[in-house]
């Protein structure tokens, strides 16, 4: 198996953008017709052997004492791959300017996919009781106190 980086996340004081490598720029044709996208990127700052686990101890304040890594969205996992949705603000050349992205500067981008309602809206979604109070949409999650939901360790 071979995975190729297609660009980098760039976090600036003025905002965030995805910088796609020139050889993949043609892959952006038509993306500006979509309002949102998904970014798959590598948790490069947390790519250390000790974090390539399959269980996590009490990652969420209101959650169970232990969760399997596949029941979390965090970086502790066999392959530190992240998935985030983002609103497209503008595309200029090989740069995709986003409203917000929860990725570190220089995170390697693995893939970009357009958000489509037919594939991405789930009308019958249910989750565990401990996270029922979480926002029910991408738009409302920006005002939510996420820091109160996670148990951070040093």
TrEMBL record:
* Presence of keyword S-adenosyl-L-methionine: yes
The UniProt keyword set, sorted, is: S-adenosyl-L-methionine
Domain TsaA-like spans what residues? 3-124
| SUPFAM superfamilies for the chain | YaeB-like
InterPro entries per record:
TrmO-like_N, YaeB-like, YaeB-like_sf, YaeB_N_sf
- NCBIfam families from the UniProt entry: tRNA_TsaA
Q: Which protein family is named in the record?
A: Belongs to the tRNA methyltransferase O family.
Record's protein name: TsaA-like domain-containing protein
